[in-house]
């Protein structure tokens, strides 16, 4: 089982307590205190919505009646200690929040297309990726390919939970003409799924599952946040 939930924040700059409180009720106490009684900015709002979506989805899949306490691995990756068959991962970028859930380890990343800077490519990426990226025509095409590569690599380090600093330059990914991803990690059984969504965003999923297709669900948060989180629609 793999499912991807995408939440678009339509008007999260103006927040009322009536919107926030129902989301807080979904969280375990140790998470709830991070947001209760405070003014919440857009970044914190994204984190709250992601946490609420994880708990809501876990309740639906696992049948639990109370929020589940989140544990953290050594490098900070969150997980449910008592439910090893329910894995999740979170990403957010600008006005989008993305939550991936799976029965196996998973990593997800969403990135808005950004300008490719050669110094960043040379400093952080594998020499093969540097060659591939700098061979793409300057401008929008290079920016898009750079963002795709970066997002794919982010999804992998989130998949294994070890972080960028330890391994980002140690492996490469290549997006083939048919959209499939070639990687120096192929022998590890890792699979990548790249997607371009909403025209200027790249979304990447990394897993070791044999899924051929991954369902995506979308909702837009407007006024009644809790109702909106109960209104995900399957993306065709």
Q: Tell me the fraction of residues in β-strands, as a range.
A: 25-35%
Counting helices, strands and paired strands, the structural category is alpha+beta
Q: Give the C-alpha Rg.
A: 18 Å
**Oligomerization:** single chain
Q: Helix content range of the residues, please?
A: 25-40%
Secondary-structure element pattern, one letter each? EHHHEEEEEHHHHEEEEEHE
Number of helices: 8
Mean pLDDT, all residues: 87
Largest sheet: 5 strands, mixed
Number of strands: 12
Uncertain parts: none
- Ends: how far apart? 18 Å
Shape: globular
Strand order of the largest sheet: 4-5-1-11-12
Strands, helices and their partners?
Blueprint: E1 2-9, H1 17-24, H2 29-32, H3 42-62, E2 71-72, E3 78-79, E4 87-93, E5 96-102, E6 106-112, H4 118-124, H5 127-134, H6 140-160, H7 164-167, E7 173-175, E8 181-183, E9 191-197, E10 201-207, E11 216-221, H8 225-229, E12 233-234
Parallel strand pairs: 1-11
Antiparallel strand pairs: 1-5, 2-3, 4-5, 6-10, 7-8, 9-10, 11-12
Provide a concise account of the structure shown:
This protein has helices at residues 17-24, 29-32, 42-62, 118-124, 127-134, 140-160, 164-167, 225-229, and strands spanning 2-9, 71-72, 78-79, 87-93, 96-102, 106-112, 173-175, 181-183, 191-197, 201-207, 216-221, 233-234.
